[in-house]
Every structure is written in structure tokens, then in C-alpha cells.
Design brief:
It is a single chain. By secondary structure, the chain is mainly alpha-helical. 72% of the residues lie in helices and 0% in strands. It is built from 34 helices and no strands.
Length: 517
């Protein structure tokens, strides 16, 4: 902070005096001016004008190393301020800074790279830096033996990974192999900058392809950092890098094969929400691969995943957690059974009606998958799943409605007793009766199909009580007859034509069953 009772060096008088020193022919005066700027800007950082920056930029181009060092420090100090960051670049400050980064003097390098790191945090500067020729020197300095220079250079490279175009430029100058090699650094800051940069780089499919081809040890290095770095922020970013890599099938397998699961499990149990979020996001991608599902369950993830449903109200954590459970349930009846026995459905029932829409969507999608398990349906009925799903078919979100209806439809097929549907015919929230009528009249082909298919399943059960309930609800029968009589040509598009035809066929079967009774 500036001391108000001291002289304001950024006023015209002091700046003019320092500028006079800069324009002199005396090296000693140049050094004095540069040191004065360095000391002033170290104590007082604020937005400045062109008149203040011009003499500093001129000093930066001075051939004397001492002047360069002090001028670089002054410019780096001012580059902490957001307005100054933009103005320095507008005044062509990148060219002299790039030259100073290639200096043989480590102090000059350090100050120039530190300033470039600060400038690269401003969104308007990033493309200009990428196109200025600075990325090559930054990549070279990332390998510096001086830790300060290395930290500043890797920090600057990280700041350049936030856009697709800049990431392409980094690939062109060969920065990616350097960043990967620095994962073995013992410095936590360098580890953090490099893991975060790689996490950003791995967002792009083409970059993932190149990494898979050229960096065979990348996953094992990241797994090591997840497990043993000792720095929570490094663990977090290494896990997120694995998550982004695991957008691709081969990486999904490699994370598991490289021993990543035990370390991810430990982070999932952490009390720190950033670590839990990173672990949950990574696990979600890994669990997409069918070959990983059993390994994840056998590694002991089910209990911690269920605990997360009650331990956090963090929307993203919940979405990743539920999506992982859905992935694990997708392939085998055994997985579905173990997931239900772990207490997942009880947690869903407690949370889903008041959860954010994104979480409701994930939970209902997971319930729809679980409801496919023929051996589980009685258990799901006993857990009161219908009382949760029926109200969710009335929410404002079409995805939640559809998932909930699909779950109910899946529950209606191949069951030993239809008593749960009879009990829920009018309750809760209008019950099965109201849900079917709403979907039949929705004018949404998918919803009409779900309702028609479910009605057919219920009627094919030949349960007398169910048939009586249908006959006692003429509005449902009228709308089924309307769908049965609807012309297939009433909808446009090949997919819509096929869907409408399927709905019409289902409706005709329902009408036949009812009339033959």
C-alpha cells in the first residue's frame, strides 16, 4: 500500500525527474532511475499511465544488466495491477521482455519471466503473448536450473493453457514434453503449475491423442503425484489431469492398470471438498469403461460413494457420484444388487425431491438403470421407490420427468406382484393414473411411448384389479384409442415417423386387450 504522508512518486513532478535521468547519457543515472522505479513499485502498486511506463520500458532495453534487472523488477511489480497488465502489452512491452528472457543473467531472466507470468493472467494478453514469440523462450526457461526462473516460466506456461488456440501454440513450440518432464520436479509449485497445465492441455482430443503416442509414462507419473506428492493442490490437479485424460477409452483403462484406484479412493474419503470433487470427477470418467466396473467395486468404492450422498451437498460432487453409480450398475445384475444392498436407494429417496435439477436428473437416470434388474424390483418396491418417482414425473424439467417415467416403466415389466402399482394408483401426487394420463396427452412422442408401453405391461399382467382401475379411468382409455387411430403421417421426419408408428402399434395392442376382456 502507498503511504499517504509520503511523496507521491507517480505524480508529474517525480516522474518527470526520473524520466530526465533515463534520457541522460550517464549509466549511473540510468541505474539510479531503474533502482528508484524498482523500489517505488515494490512499495506502491497501482494503475499508472503511459508517462510512467515509458521510461521503465526504455530502461528495459538498456544494455546494462543492472539496469535491465531493476527495470524488469519494476515492470513486474506494476504488472500485478490488472489495468497495467493491459497497458504494458499495448505499449509493446512484450518485445523487450522476450529479449530479456533470453539474457545470460539469471536475475534478468527471473524478473522478465515473472513479469510475463503476471501479464499472461490477463485474458486480453494471452493471444498476443502466444503470437509474440515468447512461448519458445518460456519453454526453454522452464528447464532452467534456477528454481525461481523455472517456477516463473512454468507459471507463465500454465497461464497460456486456458484457450484452445494458445494450447495449439504451446504444442507447436514443443512445450508439452517439457511440462511432462517437469512432473518429476521436487518443487511443489512447479508440480502444481505442470499438473494444472496438463489438465488444461488434456481437454483437447487431439492433444490427448498426441500425449498417448508420445508420453507413455504420463499416467504413471500423475498417479504417483496423486498418491505421494504431499501437496493437496498438486494431488487435486493431478487427479483432474487424469480425469481429462480419461475422456478417452484407453486412458480409462490405463489409470486403473497403473494403480490409480487406491489413491483416488483415499481422496474420495478426504474432508477437503476440492479433493473429493476431483476424485469423484475422475472416477466418473474411469467408470465409463465396462472393464473397470468390477475393479472399482472390488477396490471398495461403494461404501464411500454412498457416504458421499449424505456427507456433501455440493452439486457437482453429487452429480459425479451418482453418475459413477449409474455406470457401475449398467453392465451386470450383480453390480446392481451390490449397489442396492449398499444403501444407495435409501440415500436417493432422502435427497432427490429437494435436490438441484442436475442431481435429480442423475439420480432418476440411475434409478432407471437399477429398475432394469429383474431380481431387484421387489426390493425397490419395498424401499418406496414409486412414492419418489411419481412426483418427479411432474417436475418442470423434461429430463427428470423422462428418467422418472422410464424408471417406472422398467419397474412395470416382469414382476411377481402388481400390488405396488395398485396401491399407488391415485397417490402420491395423483399417482400412476395421473402420470399415465399426463404422458399420453403430452404431445411428446417419447413420453407417449413410455406411457403406452407401460400400460401394455400392466395389462399383460392379467391382474384383475389393475384392469378394473383402467376401466375406471375412461380418460386413459380414450387417449389410448386416440393414439391407436392417429395417422402415422401426422408427424414429420423419419425418426418421428418411426416413433409414431411404434406408439400406434402399442396403442392398438392395448385397445385389443381391453376389448377382448
Amino acid at each position: 500500500m502507498c503511504q499517504r504522508d509520503e511523496l507521491d512518486f507517480f505524480k508529474a513532478g517525480p516522474i518527470n525527474a526520473l524520466t530526465t535521468l533515463v534520457h541522460s547519457n550517464s549509466l549511473e543515472l540510468h541505474r539510479s532511475a531503474a533502482l528508484a522505479f524498482a523500489e517505488i513499485t515494490e512499495k506502491c502498486i497501482r494503475a499508472v499511465n503511459r508517462e510512467t511506463l515509458e521510461p521503465i520500458l526504455e530502461l528495459l532495453q538498456n544494455p546494462d544488466v543492472e539496469v535491465q534487472r531493476a527495470a524488469g523488477a519494476a515492470l513486474g511489480n506494476l504488472a500485478v495491477n490488472n489495468a497495467n497488465k493491459k497497458l504494458i502489452v499495448e505499449m509493446n512491452g512484450l518485445e523487450p521482455l522476450t529479449k530479456q528472457m533470453m539474457s545470460n543473467n539469471v536475475e534478468v531472466q527471473c524478473n522478465a519471466v515473472g513479469c510475463m507470468t503476471n501479464l499472461a493472467t490477463h485474458e486480453d494478453n494471452k493471444v498476443k503473448i502466444a503470437n509474440s514469440g515468447a512461448l519458445g523462450p518460456l519453454t526453454t526457461l522452464a528447464k532452467s536450473k534456477d528454481m525461481r526462473v523455472q517456477r516463473n516460466a512454468t507459471g507463465a506456461l500454465l497461464n497460456m493453457t486456458h484457450s484452445d488456440e494458445n494450447r495449439k501454440q504451446l504444442v507447436k513450440v514443443g512445450a508439452v514434453p517439457v511440462i511432462v518432464s517437469l512432473l518429476s520436479s521436487t518443487d511443489p509449485d512447479v508440480q502444481y503449475y505442470c499438473t494444472t497445465a496438463l489438465s488444461n492441455i488434456a481437454v483437447d482430443p487431439e492433444n490427448r491423442k498426441n500425449l498417448a503416442k508420445n508420453e507413455p509414462r504420463l499416467v504413471s507419473q500423475l498417479v504417483r503425484l496423486v498418491g505421494f506428492s504431499g501437496s493437496p493442490r498438486v494431488q487435486c490437479q493431478a487427479t483432474l489431469a487424469l480425469r481429462n485424460l480419461a475422456s478417452d477409452v484407453n486412458y480409462q483403462l490405463e489409470v486403473v492398470q497403473s494403480g490409480g484406484l487406491p489413491h483416488i479412493l483415499q481422496l474420495l474419503k478426504s474432508a477437503q471438498s476440492p479433493l473429493v470433487l476431483a476424485a469423484a470427477a475422475c472416477l466418473r470418467n474411469i467408470s465409463i469403461h465396462p472393464s473397470n466396473e468390477r475393479a472399482i467395486i472390488d477396490a471398495g468404492f461403494l461404501e464411500p460413494l454412498v457416504e458421499l450422498l449424505g456427507r456433501f451437498d455440493h452439486e457437482e460432487i453429487l452429480c459425479h457420484t451418482v453418475s459413477t453409480l449409474r455406470n457401475l450398475a449398467a453392465v451386470s445384475e450383480q453390480n446392481k444388487l451390490e449397489i442396492v444392498e449398499a444403501g444407495v436407494v435409501q440415500k436417493f429417496n432422502e435427497k432427490v425431491l429437494t435436490a438441484p435439477v442436475s442431481v435429480q436428473s442423475e439420480i432418476t437416470a440411475c434409478l432407471a438403470v437399477l429398475a432394469l434388474g429383474d431380481e431387484l424390483k421387489d426390493k425397490l418396491f419395498d424401499l418406496g421407490i414409486i412414492n419418489v418417482l411419481v412426483p418427479l414425473t411432474k417436475t418442470d424439467n423434461i429430463e427428470v420427468q423422462g428418467n422418472s417415467a422410464a424408471a417406472l416403466g422398467n419397474l412395470s415389466a416382469k414382476i411377481s406382484s402388481y400390488k405396488p402399482f395398485i396401491t399407488a394408483w391415485t397417490e402420491p401426487d395423483g399417482g400412476i393414473q395421473d402420470f399415465l394420463l399426463r404422458f399420453l396427452t403430452s404431445k411428446e412422442l417419447t413420453f407417449e411411448h413410455i406411457a403406452a408401453w407401460m400400460i401394455l405391461q400392466l395389462l399383460e399382467s392379467e391382474d384383475r384389479k389393475l384392469k378394473e382401475l383402467f376401466f375406471g379411468t375412461p380418460e386413459i382409455l380414450e387417449n389410448v384409442e386416440r393414439l391407436a387411430a392417429r395417422s402415422v403421417g401426422e408427424v414429420r421426419g423419419d425418426e418421428a415417423y418411426d416413433a409414431n408408428q411404434a406408439i400406434t402399434e402399442l396403442a392398438k395392442k392395448i385397445v385389443f386387450l381391453l376389448k377382448s376382456d
